[in-house]
Amino acid sequence: MTDKVRSIPRPLVRTNQWVIVISAVLTLVFGEGWFLIVPLLAGISGIVFKYNPVMNIAKLFLKKKPEDYIQEDWEQQQFNQKLSVFCLGAGFISFLLGWNTVGYVFTIMVTIAAFVAILGFCIGCFIHYQWKMYKYKNTIKS
Q1: Burial code of 24-52, b = ≥16 C-beta within 10 A, e = fewer?
Q2: Distance in angstroms (rounded) separating the CA atoms of residues 40 and 16
Q3: pLDDT recorded at residue 47
Q4: What is the pLDDT of residues 54-93, one digit of tens each?
Q5: Sign for the pseudo-dihedral over CA of 103, 81, 8, 58
Q6: Which of 4, 15, 48, 104 is a good FRET partner for 67, with 20 to 30 A between their CA atoms?
Q7: Cα distances (angstroms) measured from residue 50 to each of 13, 40, 53, 69, 134
Q8: Please, what is the angle between helix 123-141 and helix 74-96, to 10°?
Q9: Count of C-beta atoms within a 10 Å radius of residue 137
């Protein structure tokens, strides 16, 4: 019996992270929330339709077969994508409503999280792990 684990090649995950960082930095530099729309819509599409256009375009540029790259856990990436979509969406909506301070806060949070992930520490993974441990400990108590 084999259970196939869903995964995503790391270069596709990194590309998605870079799109988030670049869009967020452009938003911070120009004070224009519309730069967030590309990673926001790509993230929503990834969550709802399991199709992230940023990753699918990046897949065209892979030099090796996708399975030949270091793989990232699909479930973990979905969790991370939900966190980033929340921050991107909150930032975007805040800028639309003229709540620029709130927009900057959410944009800075997603920028830091994505950039730190590129550097090698996944804040979303840490949160996901802590959440799983919390749920596990609660099941043991009951």
Answers
A1: bebbbeeeebebbebbbbbbbbbbeeeeb
A2: 11
A3: 96
A4: 999 999 999 999 999 999 999 999 999 999 999 999 999 9
A5: negative
A6: 48
A7: 14, 14, 10, 20, 27
A8: 110
A9: 9
Amino acid at 101: T
Q: Which two tokens stand for residue 29?
A: 């530099």
Contacts of 13 by beta carbon, 8 Å cutoff, 6+ apart: 55, 72, 77
Look up residue 90 and give its two tokens: 């909150």
35, 24 Cβ separation under 8 angstroms: yes
**Per-residue pLDDT, 2:** 53
Tens digit of each residue's pLDDT (9 = 90 or more) over 18-58:
999 999 999 999 999 999 999 999 999 999 999 999 999 99
Q: Calculate what percentage of the chain has a pLDDT beyond 90.
A: 82
Question: From CA 36, how far away is CA 44, in angstroms rounded?
Answer: 12
